[in-house]
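Handoff note, outgoing to incoming analyst
You'll be picking up this chain. Sequence as last confirmed:
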Amino acid sequence: MSLIRPEARKHLDRWRECIAAAAIIAVGIWLGTQTTGLAWWLAVALISFGLFAFYAGLQRARIRPRSGGRGLIELDEGALRYMTGEGGMVVSLPEVVRIEIETTGEGPFVDDLFWLWVTPEGTARIPASAAGSEKMVDALAGFPGARYEQVIVASASTEPRLFIVWQKDRLLVH
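Most recent structure output, in case you need it:
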């Protein structure tokens, strides 16, 4: 039996990276005020790492999670795999030329947000509510200049729209 309500646990899980990063920053600040020399530089490194981790966690926590959709998503060795009972698809990440998010405006109780992974062979349309969908956000780390802010805005969208997250060899205007 847990002492934390399921709703509170779900909320804490969403923000766990920020909480852990804040703890690292606090340890770094405490160490920095108590020591000098090499230990002080360690404190500076802890604080710097904590700030970076907090920012990354904040970006991830601001994306509204979805669940209960069809399929399973796996990410490994440069490939994103989406599997369902009827089959599936594999997206080779080095071949991706564009990443978009499509919102249908039908949510929140149906699949209303889809990731579009565009390659020269075609477009993989993957629901954001599939199990393991957070791995699609993880996959963005391999795409320099990916616009995480677009993912955050798309996750909160209630109208039909297309959001460009990343595009190969083209400067995206903010």
